Amino acid sequence: MELAIVIGVLSTLGTGMLAQWVAWRFRLPAIVLLFAAGLIFGPGLGILHPSASLGSMFRPMVSLVVAIIVFEGGMALDFRQLREAGEGVMRLTLVALPISWVLGTLAAHLVGHLEWGSSALFGAIITVTGPTVVLPLLRHTKLKPRVASFLRWEAIANDPIGAILATVVLQVLAAQAKFGSGISLLHAVPQMLASSAEAVALGIAPAYLIRYLFERDLMPEILKMPVLIAFALSIFSICNLGMEGAGLMGATVFGMALTNLHVPGVAELRRTKESLVVLLVSMLFILLTADLHRAVLERLSIPIALLTLTVLFVVRPLGIYLATLRSGLTWQERVFVGWIAPRGIVAAAVAGVAGIRLYDAGFKSAELITPAVFAVIATTMIVHGFSLRPLARYLKLTLSDEMALAIVGASPWSIDLGSCLYGEGVPVVMVDAKASSLIAATRRSLPVLRAEVLSQHGQEMLEERPADYLIATTADGIYNGMVCAHVAPHFGRQRVFQISPGVARLDLYHGLTRDARGKLLGEPAWNYTLIETLFDKGWRFVSHATVENEPQPFGSDQNRLDFMIVRRGVGIFFRSAEDNGVVQPMPGDLQISMHAPA
After folding, report:
1. What range(s) does the Cation/H+ exchanger transmembrane domain occupy (predicted)?
2. 144-148, 276-280, 365-369, 462-466: range with lowest mean pLDDT
3. Strand order in the sheet with 571-574
């Protein structure tokens, strides 16, 4: 028993984290690696048998984990993001979903040869895309903010709606099989509306209570995270008593309410939940895929393969085309959104339960729903996961692939640094709260952002112009440290730098703690005053392409200050006294240095 537990933990958590790291390191879609790991450990080697090991607890555990995932996804939905993407989001959630249901039903019956009842359930299940697959893909691709909002809102909003739709279809079909054809969809509509209203109310009301407690300091920091998760799971469970699937809506609405009520402290907690969700998603993908029986895979046939292709190339594109007619979306956005629609955990969980219940109700072709849905899940994850970035680039819906740099603090010398980089094709944005400070940068045609980085508005504006690295260059060392500490969870602590706050403050025990500041840019003596003085004396930033056998290696010339190395398509390497060694440039790399006047 203990050995089985060890094998299960290593197969799920260990392999899941390894897959996430490999995906991050080599820019691969993590969901594809997780899906492959599940197939290997489950149907392949027979190491994992989740439903057999956990018994009747497996499905409820999956449901609770999914509730946490959609709750965290709901916290990513800020209504202020709808300023530009509002029309497209409404069409994708309110118009495209019913159209996709009808088209999916027709495809399942005409192409997959399923009964009409089974076809209707299949069509309802595949309407959901799911945040568990879409959000990880968005993190690895620099999409333009508007099209990213389309996919994010559709995935998170359609998840509970699609689950409720599948539940309603299942209940109607089961009732028809039991009581006769007199039972129609109209009999289920009142229950659906009542359950949806209950989910919205139960999602919003606790959010006001949370805001009341947090604003009045009636909740200790150590309890905030457990309380939020406990509320999300409780809302999910209560809503599901009225109708299966309504719990997902309640958990999503709760997350949305917390974000849009601007509850203090939630932004910091959300970062912790994002890490938790990565762990949960990795575990669920492996477990659900491993739980597929070989008998299910053996039911895959030519009609199911044709049905999968029809869903990819006809149902989704045609549904989006019809839903976005005469909309404000560009043709590139319509093509992109019409193609990208990976299905995820919610579709898998619903298919596994609903297919069995419909089969027990007398629909013989319902046994094909699970293999058909998993065929769609596997194909869309692989095809859409690998095609998202190339298609976005082809349609010009991505930001620059070059590593971008945000420079906080527009002074004469930092503007000169930004201009040097920008002239070499490195994406740069100058950030400052004062319009007067950005005038010189604007005159040199540099992209600028007027915002206070420490504000919510400034953080959102900076996220709309995604940068990979940040350096804080103001004259205030404490402010620079606050900026770096504030954005470090988003950028990564090894990618936020600040100029030296002073040698004494760099003491790791008596000085500024590393968690309260950025990584040191350059040497401890290179503080703001020194760089400003050198600039006034005529020193300027110069770029230099590295050649073979460089006569003066990086960091060795006393008549220049070597700041960074730009390696095209790889990254930016900053010189820092806090590194164990100096990164040496390779032939073709770009060196950025501050040179003395000739």
Report:
1. 18-392
2. 462-466
3. 540-545, 590-595, 560-567, 571-574
Query: Which of 336, 360, 395 is the last residue before a domain boundary?
Result: 395
Residue 68 pLDDT: 85
Amino acid identity, position 44 = G
The mean pLDDT value for 334-356 works out to 79
The secondary structure of 311-360 as a DSSP string is IIIIIHHHHHHHHTTTSS--HHHHHHHHH-----HHHHHHHHHHHHHHHH
Instruction: Tell me: do 120 and 246 sit in the same domain.
Output: yes
pLDDT tens per residue, range 294-332: 666 666 678 888 999 999 999 999 999 998 888 878 899
Phi/psi at 448 (5° precision): -125, 160
Burial letters 156-194, b for 16+ CB under 10 A, else e: bbbbbbbbbbbbbbbbbbbbbbeeeeebeeeebeeebee
Q: Which amino acid is at 489?
A: P
Largest interatomic CA distance in the chain:
93
Of 395, 417, 448, the position where a domain reaches its end is 395
- Rounded CA-CA distance 120/135 in Å is 28
At residue 533 the predicted structure's pLDDT band, cuts being 50, 70 and 90, is very high
The answer to whether 11 and 46 are in contact (CB under 8 A) is no
- Buried residues in 436-459 as b, exposed as e (16+ CB within 10 A): ebbebbeeeebbbbebebeeeebb
Contact 203, 195 (CB under 8 A): no
**Tokens 């090991």 belong to residue:** 53
For residues 285 and 292, give the distance between their C-alpha atoms in angstroms, rounded to a whole number: 11
Q: Is the Cα torsion angle 442, 447, 453, 458 positive or negative in sign? A: positive
DSSP line for 85-151: HHHHHHIIIIIHHHHHHHHHHHHHHHTS---HHHHHHHHHHTT---HHHHHHHHHTS-B-HHHHHHH
Structure token pair of residue 163: 């689950």
Return the residue matching tokens 């770096």.
484
* One domain, residues 25 and 164: yes
242: its two tokens: 């009225």
Distance CA 375, CA 392 (A): 25
| Pairing mode of beta strands 428-432, 405-408 | parallel
When computed from its CA atoms, the radius of gyration of the chain, rounded to whole angstroms, is 27
Q: Which residues neighbour 382 within 8 Å (Cβ) at sequence distance 6 or greater? A: 32, 35
The CA distance from 591 to 575, in Å, is 11
Q: How far apart are CA 404 and CA 421, in angstroms?
A: 10
∠ CA(177), CA(181), CA(183), 5° rounding?
A: 90
Residues 346 and 473 in one domain: no
Number of structural domains the chain divides into: 2
For residue 255, give its domain range. Answer: 1-395
Q: Cβ(232)–Cβ(251) under 8 Å?
A: yes
pTM of the shown model: 0.73
Q: Given its phi and psi angles, is residue 55 left (phi above 0), alpha (psi -120 to 50 degrees) or beta?
A: left
